[in-house]
Amino acid sequence: MELSSMQIIAIFIIASVAGMGSVLDEFQTHRPLIACTVTGLILGDMTTGIIIGGTLEMIALGWMNIGAAMAPDAALASVISTILVVAGHQSIGAGIAIAMPLAAAGQVLTILCRTLTVVFQHRADSYAEEGSLIGIDICHLGALLIQALRVAIPSTLVAMYIGTGAVQAMLDAIPAVITGGLQVAGGFIVVVGYAMVINMMGVKYLMCFFFLGFVVAAFTNFNLVALGVIGLVCAIVYIQLNPKYQVAAAAPGNMSSSAADDELD
Amino acid sequence: MEKKLTSSDFFWAFVRSNFLQGSWNMERMQALGYCFGMVPIIKRLYEGEDRKKALKRHLEFYNTQPFVTAPIIGITAAMEEQRANGKNIPDSVINGIKVGMMGPLAGVGDPIFWGTLRPITAALGASFALTGSLAGPILFFVLFNAVRLAIRWYGIKYGYTKGTDIVSDTGGNKLQKLTEGSSILGLFVMGALVNKWTSVNIPVVVSQITNAKGEVVTTTVQTILDQLMPGLVPLLMTFACMYLMKRNINAIWIIFGLFAIGILGFATGILNVK
User: Fold this and answer.
1) ipTM for the whole complex
2) Quick check: A183 and B273 CB within 8 A?
């Protein structure tokens, strides 16, 4: 499918917004749910975009930047894989499979950009010497612009060449055993994200709640809202009953109970 | 005349705080972003030499979970205001507060926002999105950002009014309760997701018998595993991933490894789509 120039411009803009979201991590415009949906909308098939977004979101659920550690990049993966599926007529399974190397490439690119922006940090130092507030703004937003282009340029290139057949031929050359295998892997690749979240929490003594969630989900048909409520109730009850939170409240209580014991004696 | 921060200063500090990580770099991480957020406050309070000093003061190394920066901005705004009005607050105290708080607050913010709020809202959104419903992306976007913006806005206000008292406040167990509670919720939902939102099928046939009614009953490895405990294989895979990540293996390599397993399994017929 050949894209119109309006569509290519729109892809450039949404890819920029996704790229900025990826470094800011505020509005979540880099998350597949958002980026794939909007990309799908631009290409004229939002529903497919939403489905890719949902599928990729599951895989990317635990991808997060903690401290100085970078996560695989959801922005580049979301935008380009949606272009390949919607405009390149690939299956959603193939799109997801291609998204993974893209996420790795995006991760390398963002590390590169974050090293490059050290220059902006130093430039800001000299603006501070001059007391220039505008200078600070320019340095900060300039660095943000680099992160936007990091995703926008590759995405726009793919959007421009998707109609030429070269990309198409490349994708069609992938053998069936690979796409089938990738589809199989798609069923369990999500565990990487779950493992990231569990590791980040780093609370071994609360792992019993993980197993409880696992077993409840295994033997019921509860949906996510129901499971969330059960989890919340567990959390509240745990905090209410935990003796370590009751030091202040328990002291007078203990006294009265010991007084009652005395009377009973 | 006493210098006083106005509500419009706080509003712009709030707006700018949404761009905290824009210039995240390998050297000083969120330092420039923090300074960017303080610009409206510095502009109101200082001029000339003092302004230069203030800018330099807020270009020091800084990094935390982005949303919990809000109360720190509030506190430093309060301290800068006092300093601008002649109170003797040395640079080291202001930076000490920032550096001293960013660690503990990240320890609270990471499990709450990245470990619980985002995975849960995203999983909820994804569950709708998988059916092609626009409600999924909208639900995720609105829920997550409503909480985030509220934390940012009230966090700045809270930090400003409480000032350094916040340290004694957080010394109480309120934050600990919140962190522990959200960890429980997060882990519970993760457990459910490991079970519900994964699919593994090992179609290797163990036995094929014709029962009394004359029906052919095929038993595969997967049927045996499902009788034992549904979702057992994904559970073991999750533990394997946790183990590998604890040994500092990049997540993307684990993902490629799982892809390789999928392709090999599919090619040999050990694994298939459910």
Assistant:
1) 0.87
2) yes
CB A144: neighbour CB atoms within 10 A?
24
Q: φ and ψ at A53, to 5 degrees?
A: -60, -45
Tokens of residue B69, six digits: 């920066």
**Contact call for A120 and B23, based on CB within 8 A:** yes
Q: Are B91 and B175 in contact (CB under 8 A)?
A: no
- Interatomic CA distance for residues B246 and B249, integer angstroms: 7
Dihedral sign from CA coordinates of A228, B124, A220, B229: negative
Closest-CA distance of chain B to residue A230, Å? 8
**H helix count then E strand count, chain A:** 13, 0
d(C-alpha A56, C-alpha A82), whole Å: 10
Q: What is the pLDDT of residues B178-210, one digit of tens each?
A: 889 999 999 999 999 999 888 899 999 888 888
CB–CB contact B193 A61 (8 Å): yes
- Among B47, B242, B243, B252, pick the best mutation site for testing chain A contact (most A Cβ within 10 A): B252
Test A184 with B272 for CB contact under 8 angstroms: yes
In this complex, do B25 and A223 lie within 8 Å of one another by their Cβ atoms?
no
* Alpha-carbon distance A45 to nearest alpha carbon in chain B (angstroms): 11
Token pair in block for residue A4: 């119109």
Which residues, 6+ apart, have CB-to-CB distance to A202 below 8 Å?
Answer: none
- Alpha-carbon span A19 to A15, nearest angstrom: 6
Identify which of A63, A113, A54 has the alpha carbon closest to the alpha carbon of residue A81. A54
Residues 107-136 of B with CB under 8 A from A: 110-111, 114-115, 118-120, 122-134, 136
Assigned token pair, A156 = 């726009």
**In this predicted model, what pLDDT tens digit does every residue of B93-123 receive, in sequence order?**
899 889 888 888 888 899 999 999 999 999 9
Q: Exposed/middle/buried for A241, CB within 10 Å: 0-12, 13-18, 19+? A: exposed
Pair A127, A136: CB distance under 8 Å: yes
Residues constituting chain A: 265
Cα(A18)–Cα(A153) distance, rounded to whole angstroms?
A: 12
Predicted model pTM: 0.88
